[in-house]
Design goal:
332 residues; mainly alpha
């Protein structure tokens, strides 16, 4: 629709001549022209507007709850987003001074270890996926070995090999899920931003894996003795077997946590975890099997001290290696 051309304004001299004549007002309209009243159809003007030839109409009432005065403004510039200026003037309070950002408070290493360990145990208690998977795998493997070897009882090196292969493969299930929840939920990034020593996360993960392994062995070892083990060891041999289990569990937990930290940010983390962990766990399996062989035999021999020393030295070496490299692994 074409726009209507604007009406040309009168020249100043003409406007002065029109306003100066008799019967004319300053705006150039006739003085005796009657003012227009309300619309003959009865339509009332909008509230708040001046009707033609009448007084201003009533203003709309304010809504309930709105203050009658003007809205308090904010200081322009740097203080925008702070308290309103009027509120500061009415209360007499001064604007808060600008201070430098204080350094975050450091959290103790033991407190951080306890917090992460408690979180891991609570998650496993609410949804026991790792422990259930490890327990089911161990029980299934013992049943398969019982029927595959076609023997009612095992002893010596064969019994030790079956026990430690089963426990190692069950531990891989827990190692693969060590950092999965932290990566998916953003807990790993949050821990890296926290003012906490990174080795606290390493220690908490190692202790968590150690707790899982001990809990599984409390179920798997009696089941192994019931299904496959021939002569039952005496009380002293059970104590020595518990020491061998503890040393091997420490090595599995440290190596597993280190490998899980490497593979957590990769796509094929389960495959990479198995590929990296199994070669590193071979010395642990050999040492634990050699130390357990005399304990699972018919004789009354004890665990060789040299294999216990090998397990302890291996745990110490990989513990120091994990402590030195963990900061770089979790950042990359």
């Amino acid at each position: 629709m074409p726009r209507r051309p604007a009406r040309p304004r009168a020249a100043p001299a003409r406007r002065a001549a029109l306003g100066a004549g008799p019967g004319r007002r300053r705006d150039g309209r006739a003085a005796d022209r009657p003012r227009l009243g309300p619309h003959p159809g009865g339509r009332q003007p909008r509230p708040g507007r001046r009707p033609a030839g009448g007084r201003p109409g009533p203003r709309p009432a304010r809504r309930a709850g709105r203050a009658a005065g003007p809205r308090p403004g904010l200081r322009a510039g740097r203080d925008r987003g702070a308290l309103p200026v009027s509120s500061l003037r009415q209360t007499g309070a001064a604007a808060p001074p600008r201070t430098r950002a204080q350094a975050p408070r450091q959290v103790g290493t033991l407190a951080a270890i306890g917090a992460v360990l408690g979180k891991e145990l609570r998650l496993e208690r609410r949804a026991p996926q790792t422990l259930v998977a490890m327990a089911i795998f161990s029980a299934t493997a013992f049943v398969v070995f019982h029927f595959a070897l076609q023997r009612d009882t095992l002893e010596g090196g064969l019994a030790a090999g079956v026990l430690w292969v089963t426990l190692t493969l069950a531990a891989l299930l827990g190692i693969g899920r060590s950092f999965v929840a932290d990566r998916d939920e953003g807990g790993l990034d949050g821990f890296l931003l926290a003012p906490v020593d990174r080795t606290a996360l390493l220690a908490a993960k190692v202790i968590t894996m150690l707790v899982f392994l001990v809990a599984i062995e409390l179920v798997a070892v009696p089941l192994f003795a019931l299904l496959l083990l021939g002569p039952s060891p005496d009380a002293g041999q059970w104590l020595q077997l518990a020491a061998v289990l503890l040393l091997a569990d420490i090595g599995i937990a440290v190596i597993g946590t280190l490998v899980a930290a490497i593979a957590v940010r990769t796509r094929a983390r389960d495959l990479i975890t198995s590929i990296l962990a199994l070669p590193l766990l071979v010395p642990v399996i050999i040492g634990a099997s050699q130390a357990s062989e005399p304990l699972l035999s018919a004789g009354t021999g004890g665990a060789p001290a040299r294999w216990l020393a090998v397990l302890a030295l291996y745990d110490l070496i990989f513990g120091l290696l994990a402590w030195a490299l963990f900061d770089y692994l979790v950042e990359d």
